[in-house]
Design goal:
It is a single chain. Helix content is 27%, strand content 25%. The chain is α/β, with parallel strands linked by helices. It has a single domain (2-218), classed as HUPs (Rossmann fold). The strands form three sheets. Strands 11-10-9-12-8-1-6-7-13 form a nine-stranded mixed β-sheet, with helices on both faces. The protein has a two-stranded antiparallel sheet with strand order 2-5. Helix 2 packs across helix 5 and helix 3 packs across helix 4. The structure holds flavin-adenine dinucleotide.
Length: 265
């Protein structure tokens, strides 16, 4: 069985800087980490391998050359091998172009996959769109917000426990399929020195645009229906008024008067 895990390198959340001129994230010189939800997805994949055995765990990431560091972390955690999808032609990709390029790379290099795991969302773009888009493009069933996965006896289907607004539900899908992983009971493991050394012997392959059968206008900014025009921190407005709510009737009255005063009603 083969489990593919899509992972993203993201800026260290405490070090996010925005270029005031271009309104884009500054990535140069900013510490980068493996997206936390991608780490949970890897833990789920490794857990399935520990439980059922005979499972190859492969991680794939689309990103700039420095995303190799995030893939090295995946190999240190226990992934068997890694693929970096990297080319200047992929720059500026929105979620659609990212999913389309990942799908083509998977068809080209790992078409015999059984299960794709993705993180619930990336902590920078935060759209949670790549997983569902990738499943649609590959024409496979998908389950979002998974916190636990079991294989059925014939290993042709999986049962996924997933988070709902008010509790959990269990969904069964046939393989090949895709699951997005939420935090759930997972704990992110710390790699031993031996695992860190071992990781350096594992395969980390780079795939470029020339390895894929895609038109240039499907890639990167050209292939992105959505462009992030400007990123800016929300303006903090001072001088809010706190209405004491201990006595509901009075508080409601005060709120109506305040809204009238401001001509909101
Ligand atoms: P998500 O869809 O939240 O990621 C979910 C999971 O998909 C990840 O956990 C990972 O498993 C997988 N995944 C995501 N990216 C990759 C990758 N590069 N390689 C491998 N696996 C991956 N794009 C839009 O189309 N619409 C927007 O509204 C939008 N807003 C943005 C806002 C900000 C602040 C930023 C920084 C970027 C935004 N983008 C947007 C661009 C978007 O971040 C990129 O397209 C990105 O590659 C994927 O989207 P995401 O970060 O939201 O990932």
């Amino acid at each position: 069985m083969k489990i593919l895990i899509c992972v993203k390198q993201v800026p260290e959340i405490t070090d996010v800087r925005i270029n005031p001129e271009t309104g884009t994230l500054i990535r140069e010189g900013v510490a980068s980490i493996l997206n936390p939800f991608c780490e949970y997805a890897i833990e789920v994949g490794l857990d399935l391998r520990r439980h059922y055995g005979d499972i190859e765990v492969v991680t794939i990431s689309m990103g700039p050359p420095q995303a190799k560091a995030a893939l090295m972390r995946c190999l240190e955690m226990g992934a068997d091998r890694a693929i970096l999808l990297s080319d200047s032609k992929f720059a500026g990709s929105d979620t659609w172009a990212t999913a389309l390029t990942l799908a083509e790379a998977i068809r080209t290099t790992e078409s015999d996959f059984d299960l794709i795991l993705v993180g619930k969302q990336a902590i920078d773009g935060d759209t949670a769109q790549v997983g569902p888009e990738l499943a649609e493009i590959l024409g496979i069933p998908q389950v979002m917000y998974g916190v636990g996965i079991e294989l059925t006896r014939n290993k042709k289907r999986i049962r996924v426990k997933r988070e709902m607004e008010k509790g959990y539900e269990t969904v069964e899908i046939r393989l090949p399929g895709l699951v997005s992983v939420s935090k759930g009971p997972m704990i992110r493991s710390v790699s031993s020195f031996e695992e860190i050394l071992d990781a350096r012997k594992k395969e980390l392959r780079v795939v470029t645009a020339s390895d894929l059968i895609m038109d240039e206008d499907e890639l990167g900014l050209a292939g992105s229906p959505t462009q992030v025009v400007k990123i800016f921190p929300p303006r903090v407005k001072k001088g809010g008024e706190l209405i004491d709510g201990s006595e509901a009737q009075g508080a409601a009255q005060k709120l109506v008067e305040f809204l009238k005063e401001k001509n909101f009603v």
